[in-house]
Amino acid sequence: MLHYRIAERGKMHALDKNYKEALRHYKEAMKMSQQEKDSELFFQHYSQCVMETLELSGAHDQVIDFCENYRSFLKEKEQNVLVRKHNAFVSERQAIQHVLREEQDEAKSLLQDVQKDLGRGKQPITDELLGWLQRGYKVNRDQLTRLQKKHNYFIVRKESVNPKIAMDLPEGISPF
Q1: What predicted TM-score, i.e. pTM, was given to this entire model?
Q2: Using CB atoms within 10 A of its CB, is residue 35 exposed (0-12), middle (13-18) or buried (19+)?
Q3: pLDDT tens-digit profile of 131-170?
Q4: Which distant-in-sequence residues (6+ apart) come within 8 Å of 1 by Cβ?
Q5: 45: which residues sit within 8 A by CB, 6+ positions away?
Q6: 74 pLDDT exceeds 90?
Q7: CA-angle at 94, arms to 91 and 96, nearest 5°
Q8: In the Cβ-directed half-sphere of 135, how many Cα atoms lie within 13 Å?
Q9: In the chain, fewer beta carbons within 10 Å around the N or the C end?
Q10: Is the Cβ–Cβ distance between 56 and 50 less than 8 Å?
């Protein structure tokens, strides 16, 4: 699975805050994974890596667009538990971007939809953040960061990356 090795290198770039290279690697890994049978879980994981990298780079508008497109894609899927949980995760990420852009009403609406679909206690960040917003609190970046770290929001972490298998993309390959 070449796409897995390329994605691992993307994670290394993300940890080094080289977001442009991380995105280049993730997008190529996504493209390659779509050509393989039964690779939907890889595609979902790589899409999470892309959204995370965009968020960390401050590209909140792009994350919102990516989330909206991805949620539309998920609506076309059979609505099993895994798809519904993934939709909740993507909605939560989109809501966080709205909070960072000081768009509390949009965030609140998304988080309410998540709770309505999955119930309380299933998404701890959703529960806590929605509670703050419903009480009228203005949530700042530092509060969000603490909440994200508390609940292991970020999936790309040093301890989860395997540099031994990571493979760089040649310079000429660009999925952009």
Answers
A1: 0.85
A2: exposed
A3: 999 999 999 999 999 999 999 999 999 999 999 999 998 8
A4: 36, 42
A5: 7, 155
A6: no
A7: 110
A8: 8
A9: C
A10: no
Which tokens belong to 146?
């603490």
Q: Is 18 left (phi over 0), alpha (psi -120 to 50) or beta?
A: beta
Q: Where are the domains of the chain?
A: 2-160
Token pair listed for 126: 């959703």
The two three-digit tokens of residue 27, written as one number: 């997008």
Q: What is the DSSP string of 1-62?
A: -HHHHHHHHHHHHHHTT-HHHHHHHHHHHHHHHTTSTT-HHHHHHHHHHHHHHHHHTT-HHH
d(CA 140, CA 128): 14
Q: How far apart are CA 67 and CA 78, in angstroms?
A: 18
Task: Return the ∠ at Cα 112 (arms to 127 and 150), rounded to 5°.
Answer: 25
Helices (H), 34-167: 40-56, 60-75, 81-100, 104-118, 124-134, 141-150
| R_g of the chain computed on alpha carbons | 16
